[in-house]
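## tool: complex_structure
## caller: assistant
## args:
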Amino acid sequence: MPVLLAPEQAPTLHELLAEANTIGLDCKPVDTSKQPELRIRGLGSLASAGPEEVSFLSNPKLHDQLQGCRAAAVIMTSAAYQALEPGSHGYGVVLCSEPYLMYALLAQWFDQHRMKQLATGIHPTAIIAPTAAIAEGASIGPYCVVEEGARIGRGTRLGPHCVVGTNSALGQDCLLHARVTLYHNVTVGDRAILHSGSVFGADGFGFAPDPHKEAGAWAKIAQIGGVVMGDDVEIGANTTVDRGALENTVVGNGVKLDNQIMIGHNVQIGDHTAMAACVGVAGSTIIGRRCTLAGAAMLSGHLVLGDDVHISGGSAVTSNISTPGRYTGVFPLAEHGQWQRNAAVLTQLAQLRRRLMALEKNK
Amino acid sequence: MPVLLAPEQAPTLHELLAEANTIGLDCKPVDTSKQPELRIRGLGSLASAGPEEVSFLSNPKLHDQLQGCRAAAVIMTSAAYQALEPGSHGYGVVLCSEPYLMYALLAQWFDQHRMKQLATGIHPTAIIAPTAAIAEGASIGPYCVVEEGARIGRGTRLGPHCVVGTNSALGQDCLLHARVTLYHNVTVGDRAILHSGSVFGADGFGFAPDPHKEAGAWAKIAQIGGVVMGDDVEIGANTTVDRGALENTVVGNGVKLDNQIMIGHNVQIGDHTAMAACVGVAGSTIIGRRCTLAGAAMLSGHLVLGDDVHISGGSAVTSNISTPGRYTGVFPLAEHGQWQRNAAVLTQLAQLRRRLMALEKNK
Amino acid sequence: MPVLLAPEQAPTLHELLAEANTIGLDCKPVDTSKQPELRIRGLGSLASAGPEEVSFLSNPKLHDQLQGCRAAAVIMTSAAYQALEPGSHGYGVVLCSEPYLMYALLAQWFDQHRMKQLATGIHPTAIIAPTAAIAEGASIGPYCVVEEGARIGRGTRLGPHCVVGTNSALGQDCLLHARVTLYHNVTVGDRAILHSGSVFGADGFGFAPDPHKEAGAWAKIAQIGGVVMGDDVEIGANTTVDRGALENTVVGNGVKLDNQIMIGHNVQIGDHTAMAACVGVAGSTIIGRRCTLAGAAMLSGHLVLGDDVHISGGSAVTSNISTPGRYTGVFPLAEHGQWQRNAAVLTQLAQLRRRLMALEKNK
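## result:
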């Protein structure tokens, strides 16, 4: 169920907005006289927010949902406010030029408030190697294992069952949820959020044919590079980032990876690039800054993608892309019988073209 | 290796069928006079079952495999039995109108028997928060962590290394295999089976562009919704179900998800819908009841699929589907050279159509 | 960051080559008079190796990178050496007919040296069931759980948080990284490398429609087969190999699976077959020897692939393949607008062919 603060812990609307103001976003309450002391227990959508929650309008298409909205207050732009019929609403209004960003910041506030209530410190069951360095103010959860030479920065928190391998390092104010695994020699910057089940620094997939053994046998190429991740990265549940073969796999600042993504060895991801779930990036591919890869996009190895390249979901990228823009390669879905008929012709396409050319010649 | 009971723990065929009868399925042993006291140690296919195992015939195509079958007994329909040549077989026969369902129930019986032998109770290394509520008869495995306000229902069993986050709840008679993670505010109904490495309630992938920072920078939208799952769900290994942004991600009753599936935030899955492995469902998509998504199908976000929609494996769904039926979008596989020739023409398809139209005009 | 030995632990070049010679590969140092006592702390690429590292030239296209290479020594073939301008290089040269394989072996040496420094033995927090058999020289990491009847071979090492289920067995000299899960009745051969988050023996996805319940309801087919894996397998992070329904899922000798792969129940994988990341193989499919499946390839269930079949990345295989060769089925990527135009025609392909046939008739 959605997270709601207990009433006695909830801020008033004005306290909440004062917090938001410290983050730097302008916002101005109007029409909130009925709710001066009302405590705000959480956030909700226009359709679902209750009388102790704040909502927001960022998508103009949802303007109709303002009717009947039961929220304590709604964040909206001046333009949206002026379009309201006076007296038509029971909620207060908070004017903000960027309602969606405001909502993002308020949601952060509520989530951080929840986390403040969690236990801190080093749990007695955590196993910390003698040469590991844990900064003051770091929290290490139950059954964590921090190996020799590892370093954990100030304010960084590890959930239960995390493993930080030999000589790996986490910066400041990182948040590792339950059972995140860092192999050895993995470096993570500040303010990273790493979700449950993610694995950093597993061996890249490297084998050489070994003609000295049985036909087809593989010799392992031990992966002795590392992983280096910048600041402000977020990595989703069960995502894996492999270690480099000889050098590092590199994840830039502000990179956001969703769940179940696979980043191969030696890959480099530019700053602020975001990937939705189930994406795979094969080894040694270099991705520019501010790219987006939609869900289940697949990149071959040894490619170079420039900055500001956007790949549609489910598309396979098999060659370099230097021009910014959106790229797609998805078979259009159809009713199965129709698909069968078209797919059958697809397998004869080259022949079809030859037949067309023959007709054109004889025209 | 397949699970076989020790001979001294194995039931006789009649004891086993009596158990099955209590489940409610009709079944009638015939031709079993040779095996009245034979102990049944497990189940096997027609081709592999040994003389202490029971097999079944549900697919008429496999009728030939009855010849040479070494099983103690074979479950089959009356029709299949009548087609047998008298005296042609050494196995006993159990008549049942639904042999496949009968097999499913017997397999459950054997698996539950195995589980009855496992240790129960709360392992001394489990860490249970003071405000967590563990019902009588629940089992908590080694190194589990159950956080504040969590609730574990009667008869529910947690394998080693499970984490149940703050205020999360598991119903009765659930089975969590080793290292399942529930974040905070995740609710699971009765009789759920959750496999190893599955993660429930990780943050949905939500970011707003933050123009106050470096170009391309993202502000996190903290995910403050929850996850609500119904009764009788089964979730495969390393599958992830993200928490909602503001409201809940909802998994209906009887939903079956295979391994390595990704369910985005705010998704709603209708009752009895089943998804094979490697499926991805992007955020806010709503899926009806009794749908099936075959392996590696991918659904874009914010879609609505009605009831009884069936998506073929490897297909990408990018728009709403309201009509029941089967839908497909897969590039047909071909020998690589042939694929190259056809794919080359595919990229000129619009031009090809124009040329065809020109010919038609000049006809 | 890449792994480098501390200088006092690093071997001289001649010591290192002597080690390599014991592995059986011929190699001959020349031009190394300047570096007789230089200690080699690690390996690097031609572009990045520093003066305490060894590099190699295996791809002739990289010959230009020899200029300016700062490595202590470079492994190359005689042919490459003869193409060098005398006196043009500061690095030593090691002649070897198979530089890539030599590099693989040296990388193994460095990685094994690193691992020799890790703690061994049974950690006091490991929970070992009374009937489990741990061979001498096995290492069990912190918080591991080894259940009743499990067997761990000599020299096998388990990282933190591994679980070995009832009656499962690991051969000799296996390496399990942190939190690998084996369910019950899973058998693994010698020298396996299993990466973090991998799961072996979770239930296959098997359900029978249950007409005795609500419309669409499923009855679970309990999965009572096992998993059997051969020698020299390597399995990537978060990969899952399900247990068989009645018989075993089988992984052959020398099979290499990358990260996030899903192997369904009853699948059989032939010796030395390799699969790149994100591949899915549905239930009961049989794959031959020495096959390769590139990233995100998807195989339907109940197929048979012969030996030496190679599937391109992102391709869906939906029917049997008996002829060795390379097979592909990928929608070619294009700029989004161009894709839209071609995809629109694709959905009318059958109709297009009819129109072409009409023209041909009227010719």
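## assistant note: The helical segments of chain A are 13-23, 78-82, 99-116, 336-346, 349-361. Chain A touches chain B through 81 residues (CB under 8 Å). Handing back to user.
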